[in-house]
Amino acid sequence: MLDAAHGGDDPGAKLGAQAEKDFALALAGRLRSLLVARGMDVVVTREADVDLDADHRAEIANHAAAAACLSLHATLAGANGGPSVHLFLSSLPATKDVGLLPWRTAQSAWIERSIALAGVLNAALNAAGIPVALGRTPLAPLDSMTCPAAAVELALPPFADAHQASEAANAEFVPKVADALAAALVEWRSSESLPGRNQAGEPQP
Question: Taking the model in full, what pTM does it have?
Answer without folding.
Answer: 0.89
